[in-house]
TrEMBL record:
Keyword hit for Metal-binding: no
Annotated protein name in UniProt: FAD-binding PCMH-type domain-containing protein
Cofactor: FAD
Family: Belongs to the oxygen-dependent FAD-linked oxidoreductase family.
S-adenosyl-L-methionine among keywords: no
Alphabetical keyword list: FAD, Flavoprotein, Oxidoreductase, Signal
Pfam families on file: BBE (PF08031), FAD_binding_4 (PF01565)
A molecular-function term among this protein's GO annotations: oxidoreductase activity
Signal peptide: 1-19
Residue span, FAD-binding PCMH-type domain: 51-222
Length: 472
């Protein structure tokens, strides 16, 4: 009885705080925005509901100036805030509560190209699907992530892995200029020459320093043929795991190739755990694709959905992975070598978790790219510290029932420990956008941390941008 009344009073006090924040914003901030009706209580959807931010109010900014006005007001009034772009971030560090405000960037979704299509300006709220659709219409390629729902700049600011990495480097390697609002509500147009340290820091730790309202990135004009790739999925069963793992380890990815491997459900009603490999060959045909990935074909896939697809369809195979909602605490790790015995142990724990009620969609995702181009770029040009890492993997317990939280954590931690134990790295490294949220700062920021601390002290001295692996 006592417990019930404590819960009731907590709920009451959270909704009271939320109502007070909303009222204050409507009275004091709304009149200064581009429209009077931009403040609401409805949060935009998030990819994972596990530990999701629960703000008291949402500001649905319509213009870049709205972002500056909102940030200036919130900082001056000591109100915590967080920007949301694609809403795909799952980090447990995203701890915004009912006394805080979410700044929804979704309307900043413009994507424009310069005359010769060698530069694209991307709005701070443009999703990857929107950026690709605009690039396709313009006849150019832009280096984006591989899932349509993710924020283009949300992914890029952490580093930016994507299908064209072997040709053009990481997302951060393609940035020309960044328009960013800092904690004082001021705009900065940051380039390599205007403020080299800020420019460097934005490329790996951007969400810690400000809100990027738009960024100018390199784009690559091309022909219709240059907008085709051979991709799809190859299915394998559990007994083939070691052979698949060895084939991936031995495969020398060329700049036009990359590869994902999933542990995933075969789909309802059986929901059998299977191994999927998603090969990708830029400008590939059925013949060249099969030849480039012949070692995987030699293992004997039980199903093959590969085909030549246009640029706008390259990410379509991952649309299921983009489904919003459900609980998905996710555990990323970087490592150097595919070791069959490690993968067999992870498979066993995956199978145990995946068969639990509501957990059938649980996934393990491995990403492998050609890194020659990315490693030819000066490592000191960006704060992103993981150019040396060969493979990235994420264990994603995916379920509806909150009573599975502890078991999900046990599975995620067990998988992460197994990969870390055989990572062959001098110290654990995890791509910030794939990390769980509890990692030491050195694990996500690597050797960039001391200099990032200096930049953070200069540009966000009161720590307004503290919800994404806060640099302290
Ligand atoms: C289904 C899925 C697929 C993915 N695929 C890829 C991939 O192919 N390549 C890859 O590199 N990563 C990928 N990721 C990881 C992804 O990059 C991170 O989750 C990223 O943080 C998501 O950005 P978002 O804008 O969608 O999320 P959000 O939750 O909106 O943002 C995450 C963090 O970034 C900040 N942020 C976002 N936009 C801005 C901005 N404009 N200015 C300042 N801060 C900002 C937010 O404030 C928040 O702190 C994927 C994740 C998922 C869930």
């Amino acid at each position: 009885m006592k417990f019930v009344s404590l819960v009731a009073s907590l709920v009451f006090s959270a909704s009271f705080t939320a109502a007070a924040v909303l009222q204050q914003l409507q009275a004091e901030l709304a009149p200064h925005l581009s429209q009077n009706d931009l403040i609401s209580t409805i949060s935009p959807p998030r990819w994972s509901s596990f530990n999701a931010p629960l703000p008291g109010a949402v500001v649905n900014v319509q213009t870049e100036l709205d972002v500056a006005t909102t940030v200036k007001y919130l900082t001056a009034n000591g109100i915590p805030f967080l920007a949301q772009n694609g809403g795909a971030g799952w980090s447990s560090s995203l701890d915004l509560n009912s006394d805080g405000v979410l700044i929804n960037l979704a309307s900043l979704n413009h994507v424009t190209f310069n005359g010769d299509k060698t530069q694209a300006t991307i709005g701070g709220g443009s999703s990857i699907s929107n950026t690709i659709a605009q690039a396709y219409a313009a006849g150019a390629l832009v280096e984006t992530g591989t899932c349509n729902c993710v924020g283009t700049l949300g992914a890029l600011l952490g580093g930016g892995y994507g299908s064209l990495m072997g040709l053009y480097g990481f997302g951060v390697d393609n940035v020309i200029a960044v328009q960013v609002v800092t904690a004082d509500g001021e705009f900065h147009n940051v380039t390599a020459t205007s403020d080299p340290d800020f420019f460097w820091a934005l490329k790996g730790a951007g969400p810690n320093l400000g809100i990027v309202t738009s960024a100018v990135v390199k784009s690559y004009p091309t022909t219709q043929d240059g907008m085709l790739a051979w991709t799809g999925t190859l299915t394998f069963d559990s007994s083939q795991l070691e052979e698949v793992v060895e084939a991936i380890q031995d495969l020398e990815l060329q700049p036009d190739m990359n590869l994902f491997m999933y542990f995933i459900s075969s789909g309802p009603p059986a929901n059998e755990p299977v191994i999927l490999v998603r090969p990708f060959l830029y400008k590939g045909s059925v013949t060249t694709g099969r030849a480039a990935f012949s070692s995987l074909y030699a293992v004997g896939p039980t199903r093959d959905t590969t085909a030549v697809l246009p640029y706008t369809q390259w990410n379509a195979g991952a649309d299921g992975f983009c489904t919003y909602g459900a609980r998905k605490p996710s555990y990323g790790v970087g490592f150097q070598k595919m070791i069959p015995s490690t993968w067999r142990e992870v498979w066993n724990s995956y199978v145990e978790f995946q068969k639990k009620p509501t957990a059938a969609n649980s996934t393990v995702l491995l990403e492998a790219y050609s890194l020659t181009k990315a490693r030819s770029i000066d490592p000191n040009s960006a704060a992103f510290p993981h150019r040396n890492v060969n493979f990235h993997v994420i264990a994603i317990p995916w379920y509806e029932d909150p009573s599975l939280d502890d078991q999900a954590q046990a599975f995620g931690n067990a998988a992460r420990d197994l990969w870390r134990a055989t990572d062959q790295l001098a110290q654990n490294q995890t791509y910030i956008n794939f990390a769980y949220g509890d990692e030491a700062l050195e694990v996500v920021y690597g050797d960039s941390l001391p200099k990032l601390r200096e930049v953070k002290r200069r540009l966000d001295p009161s720590g307004q941008f503290s919800h994404w692996y806060n640099i302290v």
